[in-house]
Design brief:
This protein has 517 residues and is mainly α. The protein is 59% helix and 5% strand. The protein folds into 2 domains: 366 residues, no CATH class; 112 residues.
Length: 517
């Protein structure tokens, strides 16, 4: 079936919904951290010099674009730049998925599968990060790996490039790719997969040579093995929503599968839910890594028994998504991000009736609209009424309260006359790093997780590692005066903290002796 006007208009509507969403909201924590990492050469001495967190790998690739933009505009509008990059990469991946799938599905089903990327914003943060790049390109790469023996030269080069890109963006996914490559080589006997493995290893070696602090960075990041507890609670709805989609669509698909094969999809789903339960009951992702690897044997039976059935191959998507979760410090919060595309493809493969296509279309539309009902650490949609006209967040629309907060950050920095060589550490608000070109004295641009003594130990370790001490520590408004006092006492330093004039949202703890500013 050819794509008619209705499908074209539907695609355009999803794009417009996503485009408008890109301009809405200002986030001062995670997204600010991402952009701050991207401009490391301008606020520090370069990548992996001060900030050692491995998630900044992806920004090494984007550094030519960042350098070009920064040379003309400095940090003005830098956050919007990375949001537009997110939009552009999403469109690119959607087009490539469509172009690949139309050789296996009719064009309408291929289109619905590809534009599913437009319907969901990972973690409600539409920017370039290790999470979003993974979500954008992992479905495309898995599709290419499934049909690897039929790839043309361009598609094979694209597969190699994506393997390198995702290993850089999310280094632990190399475990997933290694298992997939060896597994598919055993099933398909295709030598190009060995070339992918070799190419990935060589790429990582080149990166290791380029980044001097890589061993130290890996050591630091391995100790940072879990996010804060409340982050897991925020993702319960995301996780449940996509598991519900998987369940509902697997039931519908079962009506179109041959009678003798009806047990396959539900059996796989049950296995994944069992692993989900075991994962939640396990203290550390590594303990249950063996379980998910063992579950690879079940789809292995499918591959060996029925190699040419496209639906059975797509089960590999779901297994891969959960395997990814076990190699990530974010746990299962990442797994659902990869499920929507394969489930949409699987349903499109078997759904031949118009009502089935309508069902998928409605699902994608309502998912797109749902992006407006949750803004990560930002006000509700009806409160976003103020356009930011200057600074790193230029061009974005936020609440009047958040806009006032940003102006106070600027005044705070100007009032303190902070020079470029001044070392600082921001607890709770990496947005501080976007407003001036001072050097961060920390191994991570975000708040040090853990109890107060743990934060202090991390700070002292950072200072010892870098042989320097920050002149200022900026503490977010959510930190109480008692906490600041305890923080000071833990450092065993006779320093004073002060609330700066006209500053409601930030306090400053001075670690250097001298006059009070």
């Amino acid at each position: 079936m050819k794509i008619n006007v209705t499908y074209r208009l539907f695609t355009i509507s999803l794009f417009i919904i996503l485009l408008i969403r890109v301009f809405l909201g200002v986030e001062l924590t995670d997204e600010s951290q991402y952009v701050s990492q991207a401009i490391q050469p301008f606020i520090g001495d370069g990548f992996f010099k001060h900030d050692l967190f491995v998630q900044q790998f992806i920004y090494v690739i984007f550094s030519p674009l960042t350098n070009l933009y920064y040379s003309f505009f400095s940090s003005e509008g830098i956050v919007l730049l990375f949001r537009l990059c997110y939009l552009a990469l999403t469109l690119l991946s959607s087009y490539l998925i469509f172009n690949t799938l139309k050789g296996y599905l009719d064009e309408k089903k291929a289109l619905l599968s590809s534009i599913s990327l437009l319907s969901f914003i990972p973690f409600s943060v539409p920017s370039i990060s290790y999470n979003t790049v993974l979500y954008i390109f992992l479905p495309l790469l898995l599709i290419l790996l499934i049909i690897v023996e039929k790839l043309n030269l361009f598609q094979f080069m694209l597969t190699s490039l994506l393997t390198f890109l995702l290993c850089i963006a999310y280094p632990t996914i190399g475990i997933l790719f290694f298992i997939i490559s060896v597994y598919l080589f055993y099933i398909k006997r295709h030598r190009n997969l060995l070339a992918l493995i070799l190419g990935g290893i060589l790429s990582l070696v080149l990166v290791a040579i380029y980044i001097e602090e890589l061993p130290k960075s890996i050591q630091f990041s391995s100790s940072f093995n879990r996010p804060s507890p409340h982050e897991k609670l925020l993702m319960i709805w995301t996780m449940g929503k996509y598991l519900l989609i998987v369940f509902c669509q697997s039931v519908l698909i079962s009506f179109w599968i041959k009678r003798k094969d009806k047990w396959i999809f539900p059996a796989t789903l049950i296995l994944l839910l069992i692993n989900l339960f075991l994962f939640q009951k396990t203290a550390h992702p590594g303990h249950s890594f063996i379980l998910i690897c063992a579950s690879m044997f079940l789809p292995g039976i499918f591959f060996i028994k029925i190699r040419k059935n496209f639906l059975h191959l797509l089960i590999f998507f779901i297994i891969s998504s959960f395997l990814l979760a076990y190699t990530s410090s974010n746990g299962l919060t990442n797994a659902p991000l990869s499920l929507l595309v394969p489930i949409t493809i699987a349903s499109g493969y078997y759904f031949d009736k118009k009502r089935s296509l309508l069902l998928n279309g409605l699902m994608l539309f309502f998912l797109s609209i749902s992006n407006y009902f949750y803004f990560y650490r930002e006000a509700n949609l009806i409160e976003l009424d103020s356009l930011i006209k200057s600074g790193p967040f230029k061009g974005l629309i936020t609440s009047s309260e958040r806009k006032l907060e940003l102006s106070k950050i600027g005044r705070l920095l100007n009032n303190n006359s902070i020079e470029e060589e001044t070392g600082i550490l921001s607890l709770g608000s990496p947005a501080i790093y976007l407003y001036s070109s001072f050097k961060p004295i920390t191994k991570m641009l975000f708040i040090h997780h853990g109890t107060l003594p743990k934060k202090v130990l991390n700070l002292i370790a950072d200072c010892d590692l870098l042989s320097s001490k920050p002149k200022f520590i900026f503490i977010h408004h959510s930190v109480s005066k008692n906490t600041i006092k305890a923080f000071d006492e833990c450092l065993n330093l006779n320093r004073n903290y002060s609330s700066l004039p006209n500053t409601t949202y930030f306090k400053v703890l001075h670690l250097s002796t001298g006059s009070r500013r």
